[in-house]
Specification:
about 400 residues, alpha+beta, Purple Acid Phosphatase, chain A, domain 2, seven-stranded mixed β-sheet, 20 strands, globular
Length: about 400
């Protein structure tokens, strides 16, 4: 599968393989407080699908579907290699939070799934398993959406047309409850739903996303309580490290120790070509809202430089800024739709190479040892910034 525009297969292409194994995992949690029009009836009671469906873990031999209902109902999901989804997975006690893992699949194939329900809930939805050892991968990157409609929805539509393999979110999805945030989970999944039902999201925790419990439950495998809000994603030549800047990142902290071990391991891994870090508040930002995270600059930047990190994404300020400091590129991308009442601008600093206050999203195409980056303005599609990284084939693992 090529990573360049014009050569990517679409979700409309159908796979022909039939899976040999399916497993269901059902998680029990309290119901969410938002509602949708799709319903299922159990014992005479009508229950809404309130969040999802959205895909979680997606690998060469599997995909996972998650959703929540307003009350406990049995877990039932239809799936298959064709749009009619002939195979049913179901079982267990009635629950409100549902997670179904379909496994034993073939790599690089489009499969289909659907839930039981009326209207959109019963539609067949495509999801593609990645190749076994993908050479190419496309990432869409957005941040600080704040669950706002309008611009956020427009950007989601633009990302869908670009057909990414993964979505990276630099935080402030706005999962934190409260009057200022609104009914945020419902709004976030309503706006992002057309994308997330087929494309896995890998977000970082922002300062508007609560204490992390709900964030982990929704977005971090295995989607249960007590797991860390920072994690690692591997996909072909890419290693993505997601950090939590709401927690300490100092060298002796739990997260700091984990990061040092993780980056050291990735630097020695010849299969990793590009090492990308995502965090909410970055070390080199000159936005008018917050500026630079000096704690992360002191604690993290030496690790980034020592272990060959190529690109660091952040958000927090609702603007775009690209910088290069001692060989590491830093991209602040917080223009996903939030902050319309209090716009931020880039003040500029010695490290600033490109900037914009426009709403936007970013696209990263990796093809073998080449990475292409593009930032596009929402609505117009105008290119705000672009660059290219090429790794020498003779270049060893990432330690500098």
């Amino acid at each position: 599968m090529s990573g360049w525009p014009g050569a990517r297969p679409t979700f409309g292409e159908r796979g022909t393989a039939i899976a040999v194994l399916a497993a269901v995992v059902v998680l029990l949690f309290p119901a969410a407080g938002c509602r949708s029009g799709a319903t299922r009836t159990v014992s005479g009671r009508s229950e809404s699908i309130v969040i999802g469906p959205y895909v979680g873990d997606v690998g060469p031999d599997r995909f996972q579907v998650l959703w929540e209902t307003s009350g406990p109902v049995p877990t039932r999901l239809w799936w298959g290699g064709e749009r009619d989804c002939p195979t049913l997975i179901g079982g267990g006690e009635p629950v409100t939070r549902h997670a179904v893992l379909v496994s034993g699949l073939r790599p690089g194939i489009v499969y289909w799934y659907r839930l039981e329900g009326e209207g959109a809930a019963g539609e067949s939805i495509p999801v593609r398993t990645p190749p076994e050892a993908p050479r190419s991968i496309r990432l869409a990157v957005v941040g600080d959406t704040h669950s706002a409609d309008g611009v956020h929805a427009r950007i989601v539509g633009e990302i869908i047309r670009e057909n990414p393999d993964l979505l990276v979110h630099t935080g402030d999805l706005s999962l934190r409850p409260g009057k200022r945030e609104g009914n945020v989970e419902k709004e976030f999944f309503r706006v992002e739903g057309p994308l997330l039902r087929s494309v896995p999201i890998h977000p970082v925790l922002g300062n508007h996303d609560g204490n992390g419990f709900r964030f982990v439950e929704l977005f971090v495998p295995p989607y249960g309580p007590g797991e860390a809000t920072y994690y690692l994603v591997r996909r072909g030549p890419l290693a993505l490290v997601a950090l939590d800047t709401n927690e300490s990142v100092e060298a002796g902290s739990t997260q700091g120790l984990w990061l040092a071990r993780t980056l050291e391991s990735l630097a020695a891994d010849a299969g990793v070509v590009f090492r990308v870090v995502a965090m909410h508040w970055g070390p080199f930002e000159s936005g008018s809202g917050h500026g630079s995270n000096l704690e992360s600059r002191e604690a993290l930047v030496p690790l980034f430089e020592r272990y060959g990190v190529d690109l660091v994404f952040s958000g927090h300020d609702h603007a775009f800024e690209r910088s290069t400091v001692r060989g590491v590129r830093y991209v602040m991308t917080g223009g996903g739709g939030g902050g319309r009442r209090k716009p931020h601008e880039v003040l500029g600093n010695s490290w600033t190479e490109a900037s914009s206050s426009a709403f936007h999203h970013c696209l990263v195409d990796i093809d073998g040892r080449e990475l292409r980056f593009t930032a596009r303005e929402a609505g117009s599609g105008r290119v705000l910034d672009e660059f290219r990284l090429v790794k020498d084939p003779e270049e060893g693992p990432g330690r500098r």
